[in-house]
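User: My collaborator sent over this chain with a note saying "see what the structure looks like." That's all I know about it. Can you take a look?
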Amino acid sequence: MRKDILISEAEMAAARAAAGRVKEEIAPLGLTYHIESYGCQMNDHDSEKLAGMLEEMGCTKAADKADAQVILFNTCCVREHAEQRVYGNIGALKKRKDENPGLLIGVCGCMMQQKAAGDKLFRRFPFVDMVFGTNELHRFPNIFESALHEERILAVRDIDGEIAEGLPVLRSGTFSTNVTIAYGCDNFCSYCIVPYVRGRERSRDSGAIVEEVRSVAAAGFKEVTLLGQNVNSYSGDDGVTDFPTLLRVVHDSVPDMNRIRFMTSHPKDLSPALMDAIAELPRVCKHIHLPVQSGSNRILRLMNRRYTRENYMDEVAELRRKVPDIELTTDIIVGFPGETEEDFQDTLDLIKQVGYSAAFTFMYSPRKGTAAASMAEQVPDEVKHDRLQRLNALQAEILKEGNLKYIGRTGEVLVEGCDRRAEPMAYGKLSNFKMVYFPGGEELIGSLRTVEITANQNNSLIGRLID
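Assistant: Without extra context I'll predict from the sequence alone. Here is the result:
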C-alpha cells in the first residue's frame, strides 16, 4: 500500500493512548452505548468499528436506546429521507439531555463530511457533544475523551482521507460479516454525493485484507462480503493487484471461508477476468450486484455512468454464458432530471430483458453539490411516484416468473433466521442470493443446509430440508 495513504503510526498510537486513558477514567461508571446506523453496508461496517472502539474503552452495549449513556448517529447523505430521519431522531433527544446533562451525543458519518454540515448541526442542536467525519473514525477515542471532559468537539478532516489499519471491530453478525477492501470513489456520477463525502478511491493492501478474512473465518464466520463503493476498480499493492486477482488470493488463502461475496460493482469496470473468477472459484457466490440505474442511453449519459445500454446487455449475456446459474440484482433510479416517459419505458424494457433477481429502486433525490441537482427539467414528485410504482409492479412479476425455474432443484442454503409466525420456517440464501424458506427452527441458524425447492411464494422460494 502507498505509505502516503496510511494513517501514521504516531497518530494511531495517540488514539490507542486516548482509549487507555478513557477506559481507566470510566471504569467505575459502567457507561453503556447505542449506535444508530443509516445507509449502506459501508456505514454499517463503520458502526461496527465504532462499537469496537467503545468496547475497548470499557463501554458496553445498552439493552435499549433509552438506557444508553452514549448515543451515536452514524449518518448517510445519499438520500434526503435519511438526512431528515437523522435530524428528527437527534431533536427527540433534547428533553432527555436537559434532564441528564451527562448523556453524551455524537453525530458522525457521511452527512458530516458535507461542506459546513458540522457547524450547521452544532448550531441547530447545541446539546450535541461531538461531530466527526468519516475520515476521523480512527480518532474517535481522542474525540470521545474530549467530550467526556465537557469539551464540544467538531472534527472533520479533508475529504481525501487515509486508511487506518488495525481498528477494533465488534461484528454484529455471527455467521456473515463484511470486510472493506477500498474506500471512496472516483466515478463522480452526476447524482451521487459519495465522492464528495467519502473521498477519492483508496485500496487496502491485499495482505491486510487476507489477514482480516482469515481472522473472521477463524472466529467462525461462514460468509464474508468484500466491500467497496466500486470493488471492480480495486487496485491494491501499489496498483499491482486488481480485483479478480484479489478474489483468487482470498479464495485460495482462506479455505475455511465457505462463501465469498462482494459489492458493489460498476458496470464500466466489469472485466472478463472477473467473470472468469466468479465462474472458476467454487466458494465465490454466483451473484453480482450490477447497478444499471437507467435503461435509457440518454439518461445514462446525463448520469455520467460511462457505459451504454448495449454495453450493459453485452456484459449480462457474457456473465450468463460463463456462469449459467448466476443471478443479478441492481439499483434503478426513476425521475432523474429530464427523464421522459420514453426514457422510462427503456428502463422497463431493460429489466424485462435482464430478469433481475431483485431490484433496489429509488426516486431521484437531489443532493446539494452534485451536478444533477442543478440540472433543468427536474421531474415532478407525482411523476416519480407513478413511475416507481409501475417499475416495482413489473419487477415483482419478473421475479415471480424467474423463481419458477428453481422448483425441483436442490441447493445449499446459509440459514439466517427463523420465522415463527406460523409453522417454524428457517430461511436463508442460496449462493446466488435467492431467499429460501423451509421447515426448521433456530437451531439451524448459521449452518449450511441442502434444501430441495418445492414451491414459489411471492419474492422467495419454499423448500424442504434433505440433509
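A starting point for your reply to your collaborator: The radius of gyration is 23 Å.
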